[in-house]
# Entry
Amino acid sequence: MTVLKMAACAALALSQWTPAQSADPLAPTARWTGYSAGRGATPPMGWNSWNAFASAVDEEKVMGSARRIVESGLAGKGYQYINLDDGWASRRRLSDGHLIIRADKFPGTRTSDPDTPSFKPFTDRLHAMGLKAGIYSDMGRNTCAQAWSATDEDLPKGSVAEREVGLHDHIEQDINLYFRDWGFDYIKVDGCGLRDFGATSAKVKAGEARALRPVMDLGAISRTDVASVQALFRRVGAAIERSNPDGDFIYSLCIWGAANVRAWAKNVSNVSRTSDDISPTWGRLLVNFDSAVHRALYAHPGSWNDPDMLYIGTGDFDAAHLLEARSHFALWAMLNAPLLIGADLRKTPDVLLDILGNADIIALDQDPAGNQATVAYDSSDLQILVKTLADGDKAVAIFNRGSAAYEVTLQAMQLKYRADAPVALTDLWTRKQSSFTKQITLRAAPRETLLFRAHGSRILRDGVYLSEQPGKVNPAVDGVTRPIADPTIFRTAAGWNGTRGAGDRPQYAGWGGARADSAPYGQTLQIARQTYASGIGVLANSRLEVRNEGFRRFTTQVGVDDSATDKNAAVTFLVYGDGRRLAQSPPLKWGQDAKTLDVDVAGVRVLELVARSRGTDNESLPVAWGEAALTGH
Ligand code: GLA
# Structure
């Protein structure tokens, strides 16, 4: 077959998996459609080989780190997955498609059949240590190291076809091998095979790899076939579910925020990378953090935003940079990120293990409510993140991104706590207790993250704002029609008000996804000049699913957000309860006062909030569900 014909076949194979478009995506489903298969009720914790070893991984390096995880007590604190990344595969055996392990690097995989090493003894050892085991593959024919590695040394060997160790054309076979035969519990599926092996790529031109028509481009959504990419990852997910009847798996996507995955991974996998690879530098930490921090509504128990593995132990996060290492850990916990250690644990000093082992901070990441922190105050140097915990307490992070020390005013209202009642704070680094009423002034050193658990009196006495519980809100349809990556932006420093209020928020033409306490493009929520400190901002023609655990009333003030540029289109707001329409607003246009909806939702398990409009461009019509709240237990 010529390369051209093969590329055409690949295109055909992909298009077969393009899902049928539903007739009306805004029609209520009466269901929570977020991903809930697997073991992702809380973010996975453990270790991954890539940051420490790249493709030069071997059995002793992995087992050494696994031993330290157990001996140091980190395993007992939840770090249980020991994940092999790229670099373990030797080749694919052409006679039967079986994947062959690099037995020289993993001697424990040798079996009585010298031609067929197996990871079963390896996963057995990890399981016997009370740990779980993870493996790596790629959605295309080849892996990322095969696309990007500077040397061939640790790459698969053999003919072009033998070096095709990715899932393409082998989904069922490889997934069964990993989970049923080899006993893995976790898989990370990378995406370089879907983007880096076009006919004009260097490796293909050099005859080192077969062409596969790229369906994904990290820089250009216009060169990305989102439906095909999504369909492929769904196929892998279905195969994983079939090969794990007990549901004991984690399915992790690694396509770096490409293909609009940040909008759909919540329906498809347990974990999804929101950015390109982290590196052990402060600047890169900021980029990766930024890729996830505004996406609280796109994560929930079962599916988490992944700003990449921890780099604690290296570079800007080594033992000489404890402040930065602590910030890294605190921020990842606030984001509900997977906590996957990326260090060679055989050599990691105790002082860094102490950071990784801070049980109070692990508890934030692992909090069963699964609410990713939302941004209460935003500026280029300082951010205040607030996370609502299962018991009603708040975790508060004051993050100094910059290089100057700041005096920071933390206000009770930023925590959605009452200003006339005391707020108790526990510093999660020092365990020091303090308390304040209305506001407190704190000092944050350059690159420091102050981290507290706070207990106060809620502004809403008998309920919650939806924006306080992003883990229970799923933007099933977010209205985005032109998905683009978040732009990297330079934001203003702290303004006239210090850190009081919501901050001088960046104004930019961005992504437009659903946001907690903010309009889709970052402005303060506002309807006809009335601002809302709480609420959900989303584009028109959207449908939000909301889990209701026992509340009796849903109240909100709806309208077209003042940030809309379409001043003519009318929007109708509808509230459904378990599929039944419970309330509907009149058609509302830009500049018209908000309409209050007050709905009896007693007994309702899933609410759906729909904003419908005809004949508009969604991106020019942001709407607000102001003060949206569930009350009355
Ligand atoms: C990509 C991923 C990394 C790592 C490498 C392996 O770059 O983003 O996390 O898995 O591939 O080659």
Remarks:
- Residues 1-21 have pLDDT under 50 and may be disordered.
- The chain is about 20% helix and 25% strand.
- Residues 50, 85-86, 143-145, 190, 254, 277 surround alpha-D-galactopyranose (CB under 6 Å).
- The first helix runs from residue 3 to 15.
